Amino acid sequence: MSHKPIDIAIISSFPPRKCGIASFTNDLTQNIEQLFDPSLKVKIFALNTASSNSFDYPKKVVGQIHNTNLKDYLKAAKIINQSPSIQSVLIQHEFGLFNGKNNSYLQKFIKLLEKPIIIVCHTILPKPKPFAKELFKLFQAKSKALITLTENSRQTLINEYGISKKQIFVIPHGIPSTQFVTNAEKQKIKLNLHLKNKLILTTFGLLNKGKGLEYAIKAVARIIRHKPNLRYLIIGPTHPEVKKREGEKYRNKLIKLVNILGIQKNIKFYNAYQKTSKLLNYLKATDIYLATPLDENQAVSGTLSYALGTGLPVISTAFAHAKEIISEQNGLLIKFKDVADLADALERLILNTPFRNQLAKNAFFSTRDMLWHNVALNYANIILKFIPAKNYNFRKLPKIRIGHLKRLTNKFGVFQFADLFFPNPSYGYTLDDNARALVAATKHFAMTKNKTGLKLANIYLNFIKKSQIKNGSFVNYFHADYSTNHNENEKCSLEDSNARTLYALYATLNENGLPKKIYHKIQSILKHAKPLQQNFRFLRAKAFYVKGLYNFYKIKKQKLTYDQINKNCRQLLLSYQKHKRSNWHWFEPILTYSNSMLSEAMLYGYLVTKNIKYFKIAKLTLEFLVKESFNKNRCVPIGQNGWYKRGGQKTKFDQQPEEVAALVQTLIKMYQITQEKKYFILAHKTFSWFLGNNTLSQFVYDPSTQGCFDGFGQKSLNFNQGAESTISYLLARLALEEPHS
């Protein structure tokens, strides 16, 4: 769906200029553009220093501002004001980026702008001088929003600058999306970096004397005798502006100190700007990260955020940002310029491996809200809030990938659960998950012709055959050793899993282009299952059964299939009539799980029988469910921790992917039948729950693993990525392609 193009102008330094804010802006722009469709673009006005020549910038840099040239500021303001596509201006502010006394050129630039302004405040100085207060008062008067990267900075703006708290938003520094590194994987990475059997400490970033690395080096010298295999990696070139002023004075001082202490074998300098991928590799090999800044007021440290986000236990001086994001759960705070304190902290972590490992896990999981795609989403939400034309119901859809589904699958089937993104065999397998997986894998193969999907489909189909018992029905639960879990199968109702399996078999039978042996195997299973003689009691089982029979009816129109579809839809209709109220248009006195499947079954009943009553009930109940599943433009599905009883309070948590995925699929089916665009738009809005348009404002889909988190509670994600969640996401994502196929 096309939109009128909208551009966001960003005023910032930008690569290939080497500075922290340039890297920050590059990551931010890439992630904003990855989130939204092509009609939302970023245009960069790159800031250059007086002493630097113009850089060879990428195409998205549409203008350059030399920070000492007032004419450049005025020209940029004119271009922005006259551009019909530029709808908002985002200014990255750090005092050193802008010239003119008291940032006077920036002030004149801001006063000229006629578009909504948002200012990102990277440096908030406590006890501000009068000029700083005056500057930020201008920011408040001329901007729609001020963004700080920490809560401490926000409080400083409120309490010391007198800025209204309503105008300030906190969005943390972004971090790359990486998978958690196990100790076994860490050893492999060390081997590749020629650091086998070494205990690795790391500090990275642009070197300057404010980093306090001399104290870290002295602390390392103290503990070398206990850990001769220790290696301290100091990664990064000298800051370009520092290098222009004093050359490599600070680096040479550090090298001289290393030589005096006689620890040349234990300290390694990497005097080069590292690509993100290579830098992350070093961090993944790291056992402990050291952050030793000397400025207690340092508001933000991107390097500290990266370290925590990679899952590293951190030892840091107690500067402002560190005090906000480091606790006893993810690291240790030390005194400034205190070699003994740092050495003690190092020994504490080095000698206690279980403690160090726990800190690493805590660091990783406490920073998931800081992933760049979550950060970019929050920036985009603020930017779009102040743009008059709000065209952004759609996020750019991720490519359809089945890597995590493959990871969860072995030769027998797909494992039910995962620890993080690692399969957890101890809980075994379920027919439910393998039936879901069969549908996802065959649809993926039909759409992409990728043979991995076909290979997986054969595994899931063999699982279904294995689960079929003598009477033709299916058992649901299997142990990790592939044996039947009789206890669980006898304890639980098997209706849902049996009906879902019949649907999966018929849906696969209805897919074109599969090998003949798959169709033959399905027909063999169905012949034994006697599907047209089923008499399910529960509504969701009836709904899956109808969905399956609809697929069979498309292949072979016979009266018995027609009668079974009609019979089950009549029973759903009777249940609706029994439980409906003036404010409750539903089939039951409670909304539970996979709710939209009941409405969807009525749509299939309508398609087969042409009974308009079925369509009317499908539409009425679906629109009731949508109303109860949305808060404005955000999907808030029925929570699984209590559900929603008629006359009671809707439970908002735990929100789970299966409920959202079911609603996406039903809305797409309604769109295909009616061709009403509102259902297509609603399907995309619902799917955007996976992409951060939810009550946590965080991605539930994980691009780094190609899996899906197991939903979320009131405050945090469930970081496990099991079969039901991942397959539900895939089914929803595949459904969005169906209108175009």
TrEMBL record:
GO terms for molecular function: glycosyltransferase activity. InterPro entries: 6-hairpin_glycosidase_sf, Glyco_trans_1, Glyco_trans_4-like_N. GO terms for biological process: carbohydrate metabolic process. Residues 60-176 form the Glycosyltransferase subfamily 4-like N-terminal domain. Coiled coil: none annotated. SUPFAM superfamilies: Six-hairpin glycosidases, UDP-Glycosyltransferase/glycogen phosphorylase. Residues 193-363 form the Glycosyl transferase family domain. Pfam families: Glyco_transf_4, Glycos_transf_1. PANTHER family: BLL5144 PROTEIN, GLYCOSYLTRANSFERASE. This is Uncharacterized protein. The lineage of its organism: Bacteria, Candidatus Doudnaibacteriota.
